[in-house]
Amino acid sequence: MSTATIGFIGGGNMAASIIGGLLASGVSAANLRAGDPNSDSLQRLRELGDITTSENNGDIIPGCDVLVLAVKPQLMKVVCEQIAADVQTGKPLIISIAAGITAASIERWLGSGLAIVRCMPNTPALIRCGATGLFANSAVSEAEKALAENILSATGLALWVDTESDLDAVTAVSGSGPAYFFLMIEAIQQAGTELGLNADTANRLALQTAFGASRMALDSDVDAAELRRRVTSPNGTTQRAIEIMEEGGFRTLMSTALRGAADRSEELGRELEGE
Ligand SMILES: NC(=O)C1=CN([C@@H]2O[C@H](COP(=O)(O)OP(=O)(O)OC[C@H]3O[C@@H](n4cnc5c(N)ncnc54)[C@H](OP(=O)(O)O)[C@@H]3O)[C@@H](O)[C@H]2O)C=CC1
Ligand SMILES: O=C(O)[C@@H]1CCC=N1
After folding, report:
1. Closest Cα to residue 100, out of 15, 14, 165?
2. Is any atom of ligand 1 closer than 6 Å to the C-beta of 99?
């Protein structure tokens, strides 16, 4: 369990998910801080645990071993430039969770010589079921890599990727991924009610089925395709549904959608690097 002092710049949805996961993993609230001008966001974080918060980022940076940059990509430049002097004084390990923003851009805005880990977590971090891809710039030592991995793995799966551009694909698969599964759950719930189930029953069946399928796939020694085949009786109900999904272009749609997410990640980096 990490005993490093970890500060968050930006205390919104994703910071709350990571902080919640860290607290649930046993990290002490005394080691967690957050800066955010939005007092409602800070209040929400304090409801997770007795962490130190400030509406002024500069208050929380001195003494931090790790600084997690958790503001929207569009704000990264201005926020980095605001905190650059404090960061250069303390030289904490920087962990950015911002979609698309490259380590080179962060280094340009914060000043050179900093150890920067870029990562792409997801919101199930809150319940320690997150999935994170990580990439380290060349200034990151082995000890700092271990520290970053230790922090993110407290919130779920944490995997290093080979190249920085792989983070665009990670963003498409797992960063945005919870939203695809939530959409699928919404669609199954709606279809269930259209078939005559009451909304509560449709909800509970859809949620438990999503949970059961995911848990079974995680625990299984065969792949998802084989698990799907085991549900699909010849000429039965599943076969009819799956054929309709395949004929409707489900796989192509998913492939195009994830390509869109990855392209947007890369585009965000390019759009904002020159700002
Ligand atoms: N949400 C997700 O599922 C994921 C998000 N990310 C990344 O995480 C980052 C944050 O996203 P998310 O948590 O969804 O966004 P949120 O808008 O929920 O959180 C950002 C927070 O930063 C605050 N903020 C605004 N200006 C400053 C400032 N100058 N200093 C400090 N804080 C400031 C915002 O306040 P206010 O609301 O008043 O603007 C808000 O509370 C993004 O870069 C995103 O790409 C990565 C993985 C998954
Ligand atoms: O939608 C977004 O841009 C962020 C990054 C991944 C999930 N949410």
Report:
1. 165
2. yes
Nearest ligand 2 atom to the CA of 99 is 5
Q: Tell me the CATH number for domain 6-169.
A: 3.40.50.720
Alpha-helical runs (H) found in 195-249: 199-219, 224-231, 237-247
Is any ligand 1 atom within 6 A of the Cβ of residue 173? no
Q: Is any atom of ligand 1 closer than 6 Å to the C-beta of 9?
A: yes
- Ligand 2: which of 176, 258, 264 to mutate, most ligand atoms within 8 Å of CB? 176
Burial of 221 (0-12, 13-18, 19+ CB in 10 A): exposed
Cβ contact 148:134 at 8 Å: yes
Q: Is the CB of 175 under 6 A from ligand 1?
A: yes
Name the β-bridge partners of 123.
none
pLDDT string in tens for the chain (275-residue length) = 789 999 999 999 999 999 999 999 999 999 999 999 999 999 999 999 999 999 999 999 999 999 999 999 999 999 999 999 999 999 999 999 999 999 999 999 999 999 999 999 999 999 999 999 999 999 999 999 999 999 999 999 999 999 999 999 999 999 999 999 999 999 999 999 999 999 999 999 999 999 999 999 999 999 999 999 999 999 999 999 999 999 999 999 999 999 999 999 999 999 998 65
Query: Which ranges in the chain are annotated with CATH 1.10.3730.10?
Result: 177-265
CATH of domain 177-265: 1.10.3730.10
